[in-house]
Amino acid sequence: MLRLVLLVIVFLLSLLALFRAPTYHLWLTAIVVTEFPVIGITITTGLLLWGYKVDKYVLPGTIIGVVALLMFISPIVRIMMLSSTLKQEMNVALGAVDNTTSEPPFSISKMITGLGEKQLESTTHFYDGRLTLDFYKSQKSGNKPCVIVVHGGSWAGGDSKQLPELNTVLANEGYHVASINYRLAPDVKSPAQVEDVAKAMHYLRQHAGELNIDTTQFVLLGRSAGAQITLVAAYTFHDPSIKGVVSFYGPADMIWGYSLPANKLVFDSRKVMVDYLGGTYEEVPQQYFNSSAIEFVTPRSPATLLVHGPIDPLVHYDHSTRLSAKLTKNHVPYYFLSLPCGTHGCDYTLNGPSGQMTTYSVLRFLKSVCK
């Protein structure tokens, strides 16, 4: 009986590989299920093997366990299928590049061997009063492009130390990385956060000589709330030095997003919008318009990389599909990495199925926009 109960529990958890999490804590669990699938596979296999005693519960438990095992395996299989066409699709969307790396977009072995990789140290710079940025110096000599990273956290939390592993990868590949802090809501309302990106860029230009930055090549990269900030900045600054923008599961249409809020058991999206923008849509409609990147796409907008998954329970997947349609309409070069098992925070580990795909795509995107 105990075996059956445990197999039913793992079966219910395995559903998080296919469906949006219904509560906040199950969303966190979904990251483990989808990005650390070896854990679920190992536990389920162990419970299935624990079936040596024949009783009336063995067969139903085994059936449930096999189904759970297949669902835990599904993120790996689906990412393998996606990775087989990724290079070709990005070549079509962004143009072919000299891709000197022979590493595939996804490797099963890297899910284990990639753990514990050494991270680079950053230096702290004050770019506007008490605001700081963490600077990761390119590990290749000469003036290099700079990637400005803007953290997530519902515009009210998070900091520049968030998910630093990608910063090391980019620096090792020859890009400077400036991971910035910005003023937070509810104390400071939009568009102050977008203005902070401009201030950080100004600082980096002023100190380009000592930091060896190629000031003609910046790329903005943001996660979640940070993606909203970077998208608006990229599409409204009209700065030719911004060669591209990367959005990890970002809210691109704040007006539409307010009309279709997230499940409150997971995330009170309307409350964080109100705190960030200073009121409801009915109270400050212009604020919602001004913070909707989709409203500012033009044929001159910089190349864009979108990363999102349909099981994201915090920022609806349609934010990215709607922006994708607008980019297509305006003939802006872009690639939409739609991750079948990607939940919010799918890049928590760069070694997971979605994490490997996002890392490959970002590096491939940077090669296409930074010459």
UniProtKB/TrEMBL annotation:
Gene3D superfamilies: alpha/beta hydrolase. One of its GO terms (molecular function) is hydrolase activity. The chain crosses the membrane at residues 30-50, 57-81. InterPro entries: AB_hydrolase_fold, BD-FAE-like_dom, GDXG_lipolytic_enzyme. Residues 133-327 form the BD-FAE-like domain. The keyword Transferase does not apply. Keywords: Hydrolase, Membrane, Transmembrane, Transmembrane helix. It holds the Pfam family BD-FAE. PANTHER family: AB HYDROLASE SUPERFAMILY PROTEIN C4A8.06C. This is Alpha/beta hydrolase.
